[in-house]
Design brief:
single chain; alpha/beta; 9 strands; 5-stranded parallel β-sheet
Length: 312
């Protein structure tokens, strides 16, 4: 079956079929191989992309800028201080202006509504580099990393440990459900994901053969897990909740003892970074032999390049 997603935006993985995600992952492996041998095809020659950032970024910004530049394109970084976005000018008008000047737009910020409006009014592909609700480009890199490690996705088990309703946990649940990966959110009940999203993910999972679970039972959730995933306890914009989160999430810290509860020597550890070592994960785990966090970080670049190649 021929797959084409030219002209498409990526706002959430809900909008992509398993076959389209598979296509993006296959293309990601291809562009990574090209990068390793120094092959750059100049596929974005003469093209431009606007990179809008309300939130700070290391991996997302560097992945978009280097991937676009290596292929001959011109990325333009725009912080929230550089734009009138939603201030003196509406988001709709900003989108229409940028859409006439750029071939694509990336947005990393707070509101999912902002990236949706940019996509609706710009007329060019818009990529969600992170919002409070979703982080789809991160999950493409996560799935790629698991595939590199184990050779396949279908039937694997991933457990997200910690704040079960943050953007990474939300998107990882969707991505796993679409691709046949058994997924568990392991969190205190106060930080369970929204039930509506769980229900929707279970519909996706029925089609792929995956199972979706939400639990606070550490021993039960960890058994047989291939990849243990965590994220910071406090997301950007929630700094005032640190004390509360430490109390809630300390029992869910990823330690070597917790990793051993998988009963699999082959289990790997994942983290979208940046990490607060000693909070959500201990130093010995993130710096240990099971950690694949820097492979995962590198794969942000290759999956983002593949996304842009496929849509531009």
């Amino acid at each position: 079956m021929s797959i084409s997603i030219k002209g498409r935006s990526l706002l959430t993985l809900k909008d992509y079929s398993p076959e389209e995600i598979r296509y993006l992952l296959d293309l990601s492996h291809q562009v990574k191989k090209e990068h390793k041998v120094g092959k750059f095809n100049q596929r974005f020659l003469g093209k431009t992309i606007a990179l809008i950032f309300e939130k700070r970024s290391t991996r997302t910004r560097c992945a978009f800028e280097t991937a676009f530049g290596e292929e001959g394109g011109y990325p333009v970084f725009l912080s929230i201080d550089d734009l009138q976005l939603g201030k003196k000018e509406s988001i709709e008008d900003t989108a229409r202006v940028l859409g006439r000047m750029f071939n694509a737009i990336q947005f990393r910020g707070f509101s999912q509504k902002t990236v949706e409006v940019l996509a609706e009014y710009s007329g060019v592909p818009v990529y969600n580099g992170l919002t409070d609700a979703y982080h789809p480009t991160q999950i493409l890199a996560d799935l790629m990393t698991v595939e590199e490690e184990f050779g396949c996705l279908k039937g694997r088990k991933i457990c997200f440990v910690g704040d079960g309703r943050n953007n990474v946990a939300n998107s990882l649940m969707i991505g796993c459900a679409k691709m046949g990966v058994h997924f568990t959110t392991l969190a205190p009940k106060a930080l369970y994901p929204e039930q509506g999203l769980v229900d929707q993910s279970r519909v996706f999972a029925e089609r792929s053969g995956a199972e979706i679970h939400v639990s606070s039972d550490i021993d039960g959730a960890m058994d047989g897990v291939d990849a243990v995933y965590t994220d910071v306890w406090v997301s950007m914009g929630e700094e005032d909740k640190l004390k509360e989160r430490v109390t809630l999430l300390t029992p869910f810290r990823v330690t070597q003892e917790l990793m051993e509860k998988t009963h699999r020597k082959e289990s790997i550890f994942l983290h979208c970074l940046p990490a607060v070592k000693g909070n959500e994960v201990t130093f010995d785990v993130i710096e240990g032999p099971s950690s694949r966090v820097f492979d995962e970080a590198e794969n942000r670049k290759h999956t983002i390049k593949a996304l842009m190649v496929a849509t531009l």
